Amino acid sequence: MTAEDHALVPDRACLHEAIQVGAATAFAGLFLGAAVLAYTHQLPAGSSVTRYLASTTAQGALLGGAFAGTSCAVSQARHGDDAVGAAAGGFATGALIGLRQRNMGMVFGLGTGFAATAYLFALNQNSLRGPIGKLSFDDRKKWNQDTFWKNPVESPASRALVVAEEFRQQQ
Prior knowledge:
By secondary structure, the protein is mainly alpha-helical. Helices cover about 70% and strands about 0% of the residues.
C-alpha cells in the first residue's frame, strides 16, 4: 500500500460542511430557545432574554457543527460515506452535551445513544421509517397487505390466545 491509498477524499470540505450545518442548527437553537421561553415563562437565574437566546443559538451551532464536522472527517478518513461516520458524529454530539452538564456518565451515555441513533438513521438511507420509508403510498399499502395476516382470527397470536384459554379451562 502506498501513501496515495490513505489520502483523504478531496471531494468534501469538512470545515465548510460543519459551518453550513452549524448555521442551520443555530437557527434551530434560537427557535427552540424562544419556544421554551414562551412555554415556561421563566428565565434561568441571572440571565436576560437576549443572553438566554444567544446561549441556545450557540449550543445549537456547536452541536450541529460538531456532528457534521466529525462525521465528514471520519467518512473522509475511511474513504467513503457510510453509517460509521454518522455514528462518530452522533457520539461527538452526545459527548458535548454531557460535557456541558459536567457529567461523565452523560458523556458516555448520550454519546452512545446519539451514535446508535445516527448509525441506524444512516443505515436506513436517512429515514426514520425503516425499510419501507422510501416506498410510495401504494407500495407501502401492498407491503402491509402482504406482510400482515388478512384475517386476524387466523394469526399466530390469536391462535396462541385460543390455546391458552383452552389450557386454562382444562385446569
